[in-house]
């Protein structure tokens, strides 16, 4: 072999080695330096402690669907009303999957006329709360429960009216993913 051929074959060998080694090194650097989130695919917060809808006063035998649960605060002001509207819009955006989901509003008192205007009573189930709901569920969060009665996700209530579209989008994305992979409900 001539000197030129040896240099050419060495260069080819080095390029091939770089093609295989460089991606592994970059992946290792990305993991070590935390350049991305580790396996986070949900927008809401997973519930750590086991919580069942029976614990909050909802009959698990009566509802065998995915649930979006909102425990209304004592005084449902503008932010609360807009959150109700955001949940309703996310529910309707599910399209053909809407029969698999039921939004539930838990209230300490009967709904007033303004609240009833924002919720389509054919879609929503309105429950007058027991003390269990107020002890177990914060009015600062919206919850998602699976058809087996386990509360699995929570979303913080939007802080401002401008945050409601991003809240609805995040909840919609998670619900679509859950419904796609779920064979129940």
Number of helices: 5
Number of strands: 6
Q: Return the CATH architecture of the largest domain.
A: 3-Layer(aba) Sandwich
What is the CA–CA distance across the termini? 71 Å
Q: Regarding CATH, which class of the largest domain?
A: Alpha Beta
Mean of residue pLDDT?
84
The Rg value, from CA coordinates, equals: 25 Å
Tell me the structural class.
Answer: alpha/beta
CATH T-level topology of the largest domain:
Glutaredoxin
- Proportion of residues in extended strands: 15-25%
The CATH superfamily of the largest domain is: Glutaredoxin
**Large-scale geometry:** elongated
Helix share bin: 40-55%
Q: In what order do the strands lie side by side in the largest sheet?
A: 1-6-5-2-3-4
- Series of H and E elements: HEEHEHEHEEH
Query: What ranges have pLDDT less than 50 throughout 5 or more consecutive residues?
Result: none
- Mind describing the biggest β-sheet? 6 strands, mixed
Number of domains: 2
Report on the architecture of this protein.
This protein is α/β, with parallel strands linked by helices. The protein folds into two domains: 1-36; 45-181, Glutaredoxin (3-Layer(aba) Sandwich). 41% of the residues lie in helices and 16% in strands. The chain contains five helices and six strands, in the order αββαβαβαββα. It has helices at residues 3-32, 78-93, 113-118, 131-136, 164-181; strands at residues 45-46, 66-71, 101-107, 125-128, 141-145, 151-156. α2 links the parallel β2 (66-71) and β3. The radius of gyration is 25 Å and the shape is elongated.
